[in-house]
Design goal:
It contains nine helices and eight strands. With about 240 residues, the protein is of the alpha/beta class.
Length: about 240
């Protein structure tokens, strides 16, 4: 079966601009004729498998090999790191700086990650209100991180993320998860913390990584003792 550029982008669940960049870099199997690009579906699927890229139909059916423990949010945030005075006057500048700070394996294509984050922002803002944003790719991808990680960035100056309440964002939690299940789990834990007014007041005054991690550990202890705690729904904070 032959696919055009638009169909290939849909199959791989990536923007067309990403496909074009891979073509320029000679990374993806492609054929050209009459000034257009064509892809053989079987070749493309085989290439995707060898490069650990999920096909669109697989995204919601990917089995989770990650089993979070009671300190999962704390550990994910420690893996991702906490950074202060992150520069940026616009959303794309903030996201680019956050991606550059994120402790990713050397083989990860940071430009690809950046494109995925911008694609998600175009779909709907990840600014959830109260000065907080949770940027993340629209589809969780294991190629970014085998274990979930959350990179926390306190911004040098608040930035307009076009959040529903109109409040500029002062802190972002860049969330990378290998599966949808893990993504929703961490959304639920983080949302529990962000609903707490004391925690929100703490965030506005936080000045050190260990302070934040200690506070998160305390919140997770509270979560563990919370009866009837419900995970976030797929639509939480604007959807996956």
């Amino acid at each position: 079966m032959i696919l055009n550029l638009e169909e290939a982008a849909k199959l791989l669940a990536v923007p067309e601009v990403t496909i074009r960049r891979w073509i320029r870099q000679g990374k993806i199997p492609v054929r050209e004729g009459r000034g257009q690009y064509f892809f053989v579906k079987k070749e493309l699927e085989k290439w995707a498998r060898t490069h650990n890229i999920f096909l669109h139909r697989d995204l919601e059916n990917t089995p989770s090999q990650y089993e979070p423990d009671e300190n999962a949010l704390h550990e994910a945030m420690r893996r991702g790191g906490v950074f202060f005075n992150v520069e940026g006057k616009e959303v794309d500048e903030v996201l680019r700086n956050a991606v550059s700070l994120c402790p990713l394996p050397p083989q990860v294509d940071r430009e690809f990650l950046m494109e995925m984050l911008l694609q998600r922002e175009k779909l709907a803002s990840t600014g959830i209100g109260k000065g907080v944003a949770i940027p993340h790719p629209r589809y969780p991808l294991a190629e970014f991180s085998n274990e979930p990680l959350i990179t926390t960035c306190f911004l040098h100056s608040p930035v307009d993320f076009h959040a529903v309440d109109g409040i500029p964002v002062f802190v972002i939690f860049l969330m990378l998860s290998p599966t949808t299940k893990a993504h929703l789990f961490f959304l639920s834990r983080l949302s529990f913390c962000l609903r707490d007014q004391t925690f929100m007041s703490f965030l506005k005054q936080c000045s050190a990584q260990e302070e934040l991690l200690q506070k998160i550990a305390e919140m997770e202890d509270e979560i563990s003792g919370e009866k009837g705690f419900l995970p976030a729904s797929p639509g939480a904070f604007g959807g996956p």
